[in-house]
User: Fold this.
Amino acid sequence: MKRSVLIVGGGPAGLLLASHFREHGIDYRVLERGKIAQAWRAMRPGMVLLSPAVPGTDWTSLTLRHPIWALPKVRRPFPTREDFLCYVEAFAREQGLNVVENTAVTRVSADPGGFAVSTTDGEESCRFLVLASGASTAPAFPDIPGIARNPHVVHSCDFIHCAAYAGKRVLVVGGGNSAAEIAIELAGTATVSMCTRGPVRYFSETGDLEHIRGSSESVLKELFRFGIIRMREDDPVVSVAHRRVRYRNGDEHEYDWILCATGYRPKCIPLEGGDLRVDPGGYPAISAVGETTVPGLYACGSLARFNRRCAFIHGFRNYVEKVFWDIADRL
Ligand SMILES: Cc1cc2nc3c(=O)[nH]c(=O)nc-3n(C[C@H](O)[C@H](O)[C@H](O)COP(=O)(O)OP(=O)(O)OC[C@H]3O[C@@H](n4cnc5c(N)ncnc54)[C@H](O)[C@@H]3O)c2cc1C
Assistant:
């Protein structure tokens, strides 16, 4: 049976898009490789979101018609990862969204009039296909000699708890949100250093969302001042040999662990029969309504970079509706 729409990914964007199709009686199905919001399940337990969620300033809810803050016991103003997971689950279940879990899309073929989609559970076909598979599908490591295949190097996505690093010398590479939060969590348990490849700006000084440094900028700054976290600002690692790290200024130090909090990249699903153009960061080139360079194939959510704010829910939630209306108009 050829469906009108298949959506790859049951994260916030895929579910929000699915809710529009359900509301308008359009035949759709969401294919999710894990459980609903799998990417959030893989995040650190207890993590606090950076986007506020209170009446009047809600940057976290999928729609303002279903606000997360209306759920009982949700942490305010910043919910936890667990609050968010409960909310997303409730959003999907209460609306009876058609989500097939534990089904990964492995290959797509653009055929006349639609797409043939191979999954871990068999074959599907559709007229329109939407990639809502997220921007954080593959951990990104810096391109520094000695990082690849080094057993002392880990990625921030594998950091669960500071206890695993007790008494160790840890270098956190990066100055973004994950780097800041992990360094704070390690402080006092491990001997922590942090290094950035450029100067560090702060949200409190610039008001730019790109300059948020985790959920507690003031704590981070205090830990620098006390010397509990050794900060090497604008002094990047240039090479690594086993545990030994060499910095741009010529200093060399040994660490037990080198923890790369250096972000993620989207991972492309293999596609035949079409020319899917992507930018150097791995994001598909899209039109003003989210259509990729393959006719009928759309990108949605954090994978669809209409602008840089689309990395976050409040940035992409209105664009999800644009994708919906464009497909609905063509059906
Ligand atoms: C550490 C961290 C903290 C963050 N904190 C915030 C925050 O506080 N506030 C905020 O707004 N945003 C935050 N973000 C960004 C957040 O990821 C996005 O806002 C949001 O989750 C993006 O939704 P999405 O649906 O586009 O992608 P995702 O949430 O990544 O969902 C994509 C889904 O697609 C599934 N999938 C992928 N490939 C396939 C496949 N081949 N077949 C089937 N399914 C597939 C995945 O399993 C996943 O469930 C954070 C991101 C990270 C990494």
